[in-house]
């Protein structure tokens, strides 16, 4: 049992005291959203109700400790922006969405993304899958508008919602891979492709993701391999009538055309 000077860490459950957990580093201060005053968890980077970023001063830490926290957070943001900038510099100007998904065609509510510039959706009453689909659609719409600020704001929230799914299907894993590619996390995207192919062999989404990652990394050997495997299984997989293939048919057919050209 924790003593009067300690309390369970919200991140790992270990007994902790002070401002941070000595085991996992999670913050221990009580926080609330500056926008809607909703109580937040110690690790929250965004409000789960309104989507507002957690602002400085909401942690209850001393000014010196808070400065250290936000310096570290700033460094992570710089890395995130740099990853997106790397992708942008190798493509068209702006945060181009990978040619792998259609906003509004996930298994969730069609057209569920918020209108351009609109308020963040209230995701507190949604199921984890609804939250993930809603955020994914919003990010894809923002990427199509080349709105880098909105892409950067909502991608961490969407990936956090994905982590809360109990048993994600191939479609959800594919959408998560698109988001990982969007921010330059190719290793995570490739791992999701491998999981798709282990759990649903030989799902076309696995080869799509592998091919996109190889293309962005300029790995011609892996790109050719992904295209060849895609074409090998294309006819049988399309005949299976998977609903996610219908939802992403333009992307699948474009990948097929590129593969056949080579």
Written account of the structure:
The protein has 262 residues and is mainly alpha-helical. It has a domain at 93-261: Alpha Horseshoe (Serine Threonine Protein Phosphatase 5, Tetratricopeptide repeat), CATH 1.25.40. The chain is 53% helix and 3% strand. The protein has 9 helices and 4 strands. The strands form 2 sheets. It has a two-stranded antiparallel sheet. Strands 3-4 form a two-stranded antiparallel sheet. Helix 6 (204-216) packs antiparallel against helix 7 (220-239) and helix 7 (220-239) packs across helix 9 (249-261). The radius of gyration is 20 Å and the shape is elongated.
Task: Chart the SSEs and their pairings.
Layout: E1 7-8, E2 15-16, E3 31-32, E4 39-40, H1 63-89, H2 128-144, H3 148-163, H4 170-182, H5 186-199, H6 204-216, H7 220-239, H8 243-247, H9 249-261
Antiparallel strand pairs: 1-2, 3-4
Helix pairs in contact: 2-3, 2-4, 3-4, 4-5, 4-6, 5-6, 6-7, 7-9
